[in-house]
Design a protein that fits this description.
By secondary structure, this protein is of the alpha+beta class. It has two helices and eight strands; from the N terminus they run H-H-E-E-E-E-E-E-E-E. Helix content is 16%, strand content 42%.
Length: 138
């Protein structure tokens, strides 16, 4: 009887490692500057996630103009996929709602944002998300 218990316990732990841990989001790894730029995009996005759930977002357009936004971010790690809410955003009316996923220690995937939480994306697709790379300071 004990052998069956340990077998099931081992299977359970294995499944948790496969299913839950890849979706777990570490807030400490989130802090820092994250950049998204690609040849096809006409904009460069730079997120600076700071302590106390503060962020700065700089959007550089192809014509060189930069728009700066500041506010608060909240990540819910208990939902799958993890959700990210941007609130109290300067130069913007109302909050924004999206989803976020850790790819590795230096890469995250963020969906496009919705103005309504009920319209938040529920999955990542190529046309609704961007990969951000962490800027490593040397």
């Amino acid at each position: 009887m004990n052998i069956d218990f340990f077998r099931y316990q081992s299977i359970f732990i294995f499944l948790i490692n496969i299913i839950v841990i890849p979706y777990a989001f570490c807030s400490e790894n989130m802090l820092g500057v994250w950049i998204n730029s690609s040849v096809n995009n006409k904009k460069i996005f730079v997120f600076d996630f700071q302590k106390n759930n503060r962020f700065e977002l700089n959007i550089k357009k192809i014509d060189g103009k930069i728009s700066k936004h500041y506010g608060e971010y909240f990540i819910n790690k208990e939902k799958v996929p993890n959700t990210i809410d941007l609130k109290n955003i300067t130069n913007h009316t109302g909050p924004l709602f999206g989803i976020i996923k850790t790819i590795d220690n230096n890469s995250i995937l963020i969906s496009e944002f919705s103005k309504k939480w009920k319209l938040r994306p529920i999955s990542f697709r190529k046309n609704n998300s961007r990969i951000f790379k962490k800027l490593i300071k040397e």
